[in-house]
Amino acid sequence: MNPVMNVEEITKTYGKKGEKQYQALKGVSFQVQRGEFVAVMGASGSGKSTLLNILSTLDRPTSGRVEINRKDITQLRKNQMADFRGREIGFIFQEFNLLDNLTARENIALPLTLRGISAKRIDPLVTQIATKLDIMGILDQYPVSISGGQKQRVAAARALVHEPSILLADEPTGALDSNSARELLQTMAKLNQDEHVCVLMVTHDPFSASYADRILFIKDGKISHQIVKGNQTRRFFYRELLDALGTTSD
Ligand SMILES: Nc1ncnc2c1ncn2[C@@H]1O[C@H](COP(=O)(O)OP(=O)(O)O)[C@@H](O)[C@H]1O
Ligand SMILES: [Mg+2]
What we know:
- The chain is an alpha/beta fold and about 250 residues long.
- The chain has eight helices and ten strands.
- The protein has a six-stranded mixed beta sheet with strand order 6-7-8-3-9-10, sandwiched between helices. It has a four-stranded antiparallel beta sheet with strand order 2-1-4-5, with helices on one face.
- Helix 3 packs across helix 4, helix 3 runs parallel beside helix 5 and helix 5 packs parallel to helix 6 (about 180-195).
- The longest helix is centred in the C-terminal third of the chain and has 18 residues, at about 180-195.
- The structure holds adenosine-5'-diphosphate (ADP) and magnesium ion.
- Adenosine-5'-diphosphate binds near residues 44, 47, 49 and 50.
């Protein structure tokens, strides 16, 4: 079966030729299979956000290719990229990135509104995803009046309302308290298991990573190794992960 995402030897060098340059990614390759929940873990500065920005088409690699559903996104023109992103990719960030002057409902609907889809078609889609994320009760509130955990659920609903091929998340629990973080991770794991939403999450936090099926470790711009959850429970996987970090961290 074709992977949802195929990443081949991507490199990223910041800075123009002749100026001070920094190679943030040094040849990263991996695949994400349909229905997988993959975490990418690494210390601050290891290249996680650089990688995610490239995978989400917000930035381009210096070399290498990224295929999503067999389409090489690094070859798309700017307007094609925006269109592709709008259809195939959902993302959530640490900082929610909700629009303050729109209600939760309007925020969630935004990706569809921007594509010119009619309100009549949007409403049931918003209801469907809001039910799954348990935020029906706050849909008519503005971001200022809801909690951080609720904001991230609204952001997740916005990321998923158009049923993307893959959900990309950059430190999605980074701004949440531990209870809200746990609830969000449980919801993401449930959406992955029940709805087969494919997730790629980058994080420096082992607890968050323990919700994934597989964890790729990135160090100094390269994937160093991976660990796979297999049949063990999340708790055991978390312990294995802590042990792995204990022996490989510097
Ligand atoms: N726009 C940029 N220009 C120059 N260097 C950058 C830029 N963005 C990130 N870097 C550098 O690339 C490295 C990886 O950064 P980043 O991908 O943000 O790491 P992480 O998300 O793992 O903390 C860091 O050394 C960072 O300073
Ligand atoms: Mg980062």
